[in-house]
Amino acid sequence: MFSIILNKKSNKSSNVVGLNERNVNLIYPNNPKKYYPLADDKVLTKEILHKNNIPCAKTFGVIEYNSDIKKTWQSCNSNNALAIKPANGCGGGGIKILKKDKNGDWFSSGKKISDREIFQHMASIIMGFFSLGSHDRVLIEECIEPHPFFHEIYPEGVPDFRIITLNNTPLMSMLRMPTNKSDGKANLHQNGVGIGVDMKEGRLLDVYDGKKYSNHHPDSTFLVNGAPIPYWKEILEISIATAKAFPLNYLGIDVVIDKVKGPQIMEINVRPGLGIQLVNKMGLKGAIQQAI
Amino acid sequence: MTSKTNLKTALILIATIAIISIGFKVPSILKNYDNFNPKEVYKLKYRFFFKSGANNTSLKTYVPKSNSRQRISEEQISNDGTLLFLKKNEQQGNTRAIWNTKSINSYHAIDYDFTFEGKDKSFIVPKIFKNTLKVNKEYLNPTLNIQSDNKAVKDLAIQLTKDTKNDKEVIQNIFDYVYAIPSAPIITLTDAVTTILQKRASCNGKSRLFVALCRSLDYPSRIKGGIIVEKGNKRTSHAWVELLINDIWVPFDGLNNHFAYLPANYLEIYQGDKSLITRTAGIQFDYIYEIEQLHHVSFLNMNSKELHTLPGFSLWNLVAKDIVPTGALHLLLLLPIGGLLVAFLRNIVGLKTFGVFLPVLIAFSLSHTGFISGIAIFVGLIILIGLISYPFDRLGLLYTPKLVISLTIMVSVILLSTHFGVKNNILWLTKLTFFPIIILTISAERFSRSTVEDGYVRALDKLFQTLIATSITYFILSWSFLPSILILFPEIVLLVIVLAAFLGRYIGIRWAELFRFKPLLLSER
User: Fold this and answer.
1) Stretch A192-205: mean pLDDT
2) Nearest chain B alpha carbon to A91
């Protein structure tokens, strides 16, 4: 009876990793808790990336105190596009993408935004509105322009690759894309779609929308399956470099492709989700065996 | 690796010690297993004081006997030597204690004490009554005070049978009528007819009218006398009614609204329209019933002293000496079990809940409010507070102050509805205060945040899963033997640690993940 309750059989024979096994066998032994902030705090992550010359969005400024907002903003103001992010934000909350028009006015998601509103947003980031009450820092960085490759599949939002690495070895990957229903977000559980990746060939596989598989994005007719991924070799290289740069051995690394600068590291995750197994129709344990 | 092996050894050692310690106690507990399972246990003492008169003086009182729902034991009588005591079985199965004395103008004291173990009992009332055995005439005939042949009684009875389809509805109407009569502590004898006329009555008047109405419609019925046993001293006895339904005497209390139900603390003493104490007229006399509630383990036929002598370690000491209030002690002991249960539901079943121990704490509250109304109140509150807090979420307030607002709204809603409930006599509204407010606030907050982050469907799904976990926890924790078992075997807490440690190393796929990864698992086969 116990073996039924504990799913003994299916666990031994299956390659699928569940949350329990991910936590006990992958996260706890490989990711020491004291290093979590290096991944959870975007400012710390970028410091390490910059130090190791790993390509990522240029940091324009970091604001820790309200009194520094004006000064730092003036030094960033000369750019034409930038992203404002809370260092410890979760679920994409508090991120604002700003773009300048010809007259030099700032626009955010199609609406004009005054300096005062920008300062207010930064102040609320510092006060911890997007990071559950704790003090936070503002990260101002270069704005990524997605590579035209993605436009053919779906033109909106910023798609990214999620690469799972274990001991500096990439195991599995997927491309996450927004949909008409996902409100610009690329997360699988927020109606985004995941596209499987053939790691060896660097080609896209099937599209998975959380329920079923198909060979095209739900909002376009472009046939995804088999499409070669631009810069795939570089993507793997910078992922490995990133994995080596951090004292964390089981990571979910998010990579975007900029139309000018090529692959860039966006952020790293110490508790990567397990949906990637469904997207790639493969269990993580199978991927680990293949990698070894 | 060695530290892991060491830990494993330590855990196995702890488990072995716990199991051995439990093993020592099991035989004596099994030996004393008692399937009577009383709900409440009391020590009662009838105390009588009187001064004997000029001639023979006598004092009589009915004494209780054991039956299927009450157990009387450890009877003890102490009286001075000049009193002659005898116990007499009378008609209708009553037993009377009688004291006689020939001494003149002297003071006497009598103590009659016993242990009363009671449990509640409810009866199912069928739609149609059918007694197969011959019914004794005395349960159908009018008496001096139960005037079932009186015109006023008969008219009322016929009026109450109007528009009824079966026997049950008739009895329900009679019951409702009697229950609706305002109660009043009337000391003088109130017969059935007077009860109709003066429209207020004590338990005696109500019972007489109830029986009179039943008998006038040919339902065999009788008065039952006893004491509502409560901690402390009291002088009042109580009367209720029994109806013979399908050869079973079924109790009805038209004063305290018990329909075919007798609570655990009703001590049954005699049958018939009698008085509990009768004595020679004109003597100085006083009496009191002293009642003490006893701690007990429902499934053990052992008294407190015997429980102390159990081999090994138990927490009986804490119970018997009233060091910790019983409720608090039960809560403390059940908390680890509830926690283990939630750990099981989360890590093996894969339920997602708001908060880790929220289901346990809500389950505890449900034991005060009742399951259905408790769940309804819980869901109502969470959704209400979630909706009220929504505009504040939109305002862009900081997390902690926002939580304070939710908390304040929660407290206001609870106080207002309790106030409204008390004022308008809506019972379930007054039960809101049983819920741990902080916990409710946090879960309401999580719910409203979840609606923003994951959308309403996922938030409601999570709420639903929380409710499932709460219900499972509730049904397991409300098993009445569980607190007593934990008091007798506190070692179980050690086993909880051991089990939780193994659960903490469990890497199997959760049941919920079997569905999530179904396509993958299927293709692997």
Assistant:
1) 93
2) B453
Three-state SS for B43-66 is EEEEEEEEECCCCCEEEEEECCCC
pLDDT in tens, A120-136: 999 989 988 787 667 89
- Chain B touched by A88 (CB under 8 Å): no
Name the residue with tokens 């919920």. Answer: B512
Q: What is the chain B residue with the closest CA to A212?
A: B519
Q: What is the pTM of this model?
A: 0.77
- Chain B residue nearest residue A12, CA to CA: B508
Query: Which site among A2, A4, A19, A187 would you substitute to test the B interface, given the most B Cβ atoms closer than 10 Å to its Cβ?
Result: A19
Instruction: Identify which of A8, A20, A25 has the shortest CB distance to residue B347.
Output: A20
A214 — contact with chain B (CB < 8 Å)? no
How many A×B Cβ pairs under 8 Å? 79
Residue B31, judged by CB atoms within 10 A of its CB (0-12, 13-18, 19+), counts as exposed
Helix axes B358-369, B371-394, angle to 10 degrees: 130
A3 band by pLDDT with thresholds 50, 70 and 90: low
Q: How confident is the model at residue B355 (pLDDT cuts 50, 70, 90)?
A: confident
Beta carbons of A133 and B398 less than 8 Å apart = yes
Q: Please tell me if residue A6 touches chain B, with a CB cutoff of 8 Å.
A: yes
Residue B388 contacts by C-beta under 8 Å, 6 or more apart in sequence? B409, B413
Say if residues A268 and A242 touch (Cβ distance below 8 Å): yes
Tokens for B231, please give them: 């901690």
Per-residue pLDDT, averaged over A227-256, amounts to 95
Cα torsion A241, A136, B394, B390: sign: positive
Calpha distance B433→B414 (Å, rounded): 7
Rounded Cα gap, residues B316 and B314, in angstroms: 6
CA gap B123, B259 in Å, rounded: 9
Residue percentage of chain A with pLDDT more than 70 = 94
- When pLDDT is averaged across residues B109-127 and rounded to a whole number, the result is 91
Q: pLDDT-based confidence at A4, cuts 50/70/90?
A: low
Taking an 8 Å cut-off on Cβ atoms, the answer to whether A277 and B516 are in contact is no
Neighbours of B135 (CB within 10 A): 14
Assess A215–B contact: CB distance below 8 Å, yes or no.
Answer: no
Does the beta-carbon distance from B347 to A277 stay under 8 Å? no
User: Which residue in the set B400, B510, B524 is minimally distant from A14, CB to CB?
Assistant: B524
